[in-house]
Inverse folding.
């Protein structure tokens, strides 16, 4: 079974001494550790600058950050105000994502703490944030802080659910081999911790591979002929507008329907594009022909054609043809002829 996913929004600035490889390594380490519980982490958004002029690039000097945890009752100091403003900056980061901020300075004010989890209640929403100093880079502290986020219950409590939790510091553990011990030295996660983590509202189902999301591009024509013996036939070729349809594991069938008329003949077309696991697309084509009288169309069905075509993965301008005739007439000159050219591409914006 595929792992459940937690999205991370990463914020940092070049002056913080953090490289992209550092972030990638931290996220990989956290994923490897939490793989014990079937959980992994994906970087949803990564920004290299913060657009808040009054924060001066939101960098904090070494030992400048004084408060860790819920800021609701934190002292109203200049540093805490700046910290709160930074945590409020989380563009494109949803309530069910975790915002991670890499800041300057090696430790917090105590000279020991290098990271912290900040739970917040903003406009009725629970927002989870993590601050990492440069002293937490290339360690397991990101995994540790994500543990706090995963343990948050509906009532806001995020105590360690393991029986060995520290009675004096209930969000941490007494066993040095466990990830939730401080300082972080081990990476063990226990069954009670895994059970609670897997109940977190942060978890999302993993997205299918990108190449399963298909963008179907369609061009073509519909030719209609109305046989008017002994008069001349009326006919016309309609150039169809370019059409793009999405089909994927979440939108398995997409339909395009259109109708054109020539004199007394009306042709209705229904195209069903059906997704397959191998990224091919099954096209079911339905052509209906109606012929009226005295220059007017009717709803009496005079012809029906059903056909199926397989559009291979990555096909370009794949040709599909289908026609419908008036089976109520001895002659077959009342006809609708459909010609399509179809491309089966990866959807760049699934």
């Amino acid at each position: 079974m595929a792992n459940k996913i937690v999205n991370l929004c990463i914020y940092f600035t070049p002056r913080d001494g953090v490289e992209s490889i550092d972030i990638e390594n931290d996220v990989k380490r956290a994923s490897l550790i939490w793989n014990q519980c079937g959980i992994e982490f994906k970087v949803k958004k990564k920004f290299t600058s913060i657009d808040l002029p009054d924060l001066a690039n939101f960098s904090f000097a070494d030992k400048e950050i004084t408060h860790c945890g819920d800021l609701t009752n934190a002292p109203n100091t200049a540093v805490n105000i700046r910290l709160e403003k930074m945590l409020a900056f989380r563009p494109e980061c949803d309530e069910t994502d975790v915002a991670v901020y890499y800041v300057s300075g090696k430790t917090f004010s105590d000279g020991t703490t290098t990271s912290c989890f900040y739970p917040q209640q903003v406009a009725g929403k629970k927002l989870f944030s993590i601050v990492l100093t440069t002293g937490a880079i290339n360690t397991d502290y990101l995994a540790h802080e994500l543990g706090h986020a995963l343990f948050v219950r509906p009532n806001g409590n995020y105590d360690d659910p393991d029986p060995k939790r520290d009675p004096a510091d209930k969000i941490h553990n007494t066993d040095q081999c466990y990830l939730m011990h401080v300082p972080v030295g081990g990476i063990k996660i226990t069954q009670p911790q895994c059970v609670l983590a897997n109940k977190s509202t942060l978890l999302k189902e993993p997205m299918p591979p990108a190449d399963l999301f298909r963008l179907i591009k369609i061009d073509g024509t519909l030719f209609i002929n109305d046989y008017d013996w002994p008069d001349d036939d009326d006919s016309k070729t309609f150039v169809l507008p370019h059409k793009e349809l999405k089909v994927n594991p979440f939108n398995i069938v997409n339909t395009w329907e259109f109708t054109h008329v020539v004199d007394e003949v009306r042709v209705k077309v229904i195209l069903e594009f059906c997704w397959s696991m191998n990224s091919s697309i099954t096209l079911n084509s339905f052509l209906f022909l109606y012929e009226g009288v005295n220059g007017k169309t009717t709803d009496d069905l005079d012809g029906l054609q059903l056909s199926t075509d397989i559009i291979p993965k990555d096909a370009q301008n794949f040709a599909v043809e289908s026609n419908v005739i008036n089976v109520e007439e001895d002659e077959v000159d009342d006809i609708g002829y459909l010609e399509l050219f179809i491309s089966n591409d990866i959807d760049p914006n699934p």
